[in-house]
């Protein structure tokens, strides 16, 4: 089924052409102690973020931000979700903040597939959708074994084109029953149409990301365990292991990303927590609003864009994303 919405043209999606007028200027967040980087390992953190690198607020006044993804086409732009606002938003340094797609069916996580198309987890649609190059939005996945998904939350795309996503019931529309018994992590192969459950033993699976070599999958559990787990990715798109990688004490873990070195960045209530590949804590970047997710972007991949509360922020780093 194709669902048309009001959004920027496909040409804008794939070229990220941003008008210079009407932009929102990024301002550094005041250098108060509560916004400073907190170091667990100062030497290691200094190799990731330059001392004194400012946290910048790019836009505010939104309802609840999530699901950032950087589109590198043309001049580049950030797409993210305002979930209760039922809208996908677009931000660029040249064009500022604009509407990208409305309604978004209460979109949450977003990713870009290997063909450059936007993949979106929709709470309201209870589906994973795809924005085609002709501007149409169609359902990619909405059922497992004939049952409607809960409310797809976050999504990533592997280099082989497979699409991996989590499906907790956080965004289950009111008055709609849960049909899938568990809260699972899935892998979808668009080439074969095969959808499989790759992890069943989560309370509330949430953010997920691959290590740079894609041999590991990190998945956050924002339920009672408040942990990030790590799995070994098999050639047949199954997972092994699932041991605790780290635990978040400030709120719960949400979105996750890896840099090219294999360090793991986890969003928590107070900001971004950074861990080495061995699970050791490196440090934190504190953010003045509850942090939900992050992505790497910018021309060189060395800007972290952060969705937090009603705003979006950014900070420059020294190591690009994977």
Protein described:
The protein is mainly β and 322 residues long. Helix content is 3%, strand content 46%. It is globular, with a radius of gyration of 18 Å. The protein has a single domain (36-316), classed as TolB, C-terminal domain (Neuraminidase, 6 Propeller). The two termini are 33 Å apart. The strands form seven sheets. A five-stranded antiparallel sheet has the order 1-13-12-11-10, with no helix packed on it.
Tell me the layout of helices and strands.
Blueprint: E1 2-3, E2 6-7, H1 10-15, E3 27-28, E4 37-39, H2 42-46, E5 56-59, E6 65-71, E7 77-82, E8 87-92, E9 96-102, E10 107-112, E11 118-122, E12 127-131, E13 137-141, E14 143-144, E15 147-148, E16 155-157, E17 163-166, E18 185-189, E19 194-199, E20 205-210, E21 216-221, E22 227-233, E23 239-247, E24 256-258, E25 264-268, E26 271-275, E27 281-286, E28 291-297, E29 303-308, E30 311-316
Antiparallel strand pairs: 1-13, 2-9, 3-5, 4-27, 5-30, 6-7, 7-8, 8-9, 10-11, 11-12, 12-13, 14-15, 16-17, 17-18, 18-19, 20-21, 21-22, 22-23, 24-25, 25-26, 26-27, 28-29, 29-30
Rough outline = globular
- Low-confidence region ranges: 1-15, 17-24
Mean pLDDT: 90
CATH topology: Neuraminidase
Helix content: under 10%
Termini gap: 33 Å
Brief rundown of the structure:
The protein is mainly β and 322 residues long. It contains 2 helices and 30 strands.
Task: Please describe the structure with a list of short key phrases separated by commas or semicolons.
2 helices, 3% helix, Neuraminidase, 322 residues, mainly beta, single chain
